[in-house]
Each structure stands twice: as structure tokens, then as C-alpha cells.
Design brief:
It holds the Pfam family YCII. About 25% of the residues lie in helices and about 25% in strands. It has two helices and six strands; from the N terminus they run βαββββαβ.
Length: about 140
């Protein structure tokens, strides 16, 4: 089994087929989308492929260390940045092909008008071994 992170983007990835931003959806469309996501996760829980997932708020800040005895430096909120992650799901599957299959299915979550979004999802494998440095 291998773990993969499925990333959903508010923006920053290629445009979806049903490219109406979520802030322009009706409450019913948002509920249908969230129900699809919940049902998808429940199905994967039954097969042992679901680890965890969360939707993220658009607010946030960049933070970094600024030296001993100094407070962390922040830069934000960053809602105006090009790339904004909407949420993520961690899956544990037998192969990369299965991760891609599930990401494709997840991209069909309903959006505006109840039509599938067909959004692009980013599929990232978890790092399982430290990278090798060749000199």
C-alpha cells in the first residue's frame, strides 16, 4: 500500500470543465458537493483506502522562524495569491494507478447547476525514503 495526497485547488490549477467558483454556488449546490465528498470518503473507509481529509478555509498566513528569542514572522492573509488549496484527502492504495482512478472519480463532484466539476486534482505520493544525494 502507498499513501497519496489528493489536493483540491480553489485556483492555481488548470481550469475545470464546470469552472464556476464555489462562492457563486447556491447553498443547495454546496450541500450536494459536500455530500458527494462525504459519500466518497465513506466508501473508501469501507475498503480501507481512506486515511483522512479536510476542507480548508480560504484564509491563512505564511509563517517562518526569525531567530532565537524573536517572534515568528508572518505574511498574510494570502487569499489573493495565485494558488489556493481548497482541501485535501489522504488515501492509502495499492498503486499509483488506483490513486489516479480515485482522483478522477473525485474530480466529478457536483458543482454549479448540479453538473460535475471535472476539476483537476493534484496527486502527490508521500515520501517513503529520504532522497538520495549523488555527488
Amino acid at each position: 500500500m502507498a499513501k497519496y495526497l489528493l489536493l483540491k485547488h480553489y485556483r492555481g490549477g488548470p481550469a475545470a470543465v464546470n469552472d464556476v467558483p464555489m462562492d457563486r454556488w447556491t447553498p443547495e449546490e454546496i450541500s450536494a458537493h459536500m455530500q458527494y465528498m462525504s459519500d466518497f470518503a465513506s466508501r473508501l473507509e469501507k475498503t480501507g483506502e481512506y486515511i483522512e481529509g479536510q476542507a480548508l478555509a480560504p484564509e491563512g498566513a505564511w509563517v517562518r522562524y526569525d531567530g532565537p528569542g524573536r517572534p515568528p514572522v508572518t505574511d498574510g492573509p494570502f487569499a489573493e495569491t495565485k494558488d489556493l488549496i481548497a482541501g485535501w484527502m489522504v488515501i492509502d492504495v495499492d498503486s499509483y494507478e488506483r490513486a489516479v482512478e480515485l482522483a478522477g472519480e473525485l474530480s466529478a463532484a457536483p458543482g454549479a447547476g448540479g453538473k460535475p466539476i471535472h476539476e483537476w486534482l493534484e496527486v502527490r505520493p508521500f515520501l517513503t525514503e529520504p532522497p538520495t544525494i549523488a555527488e
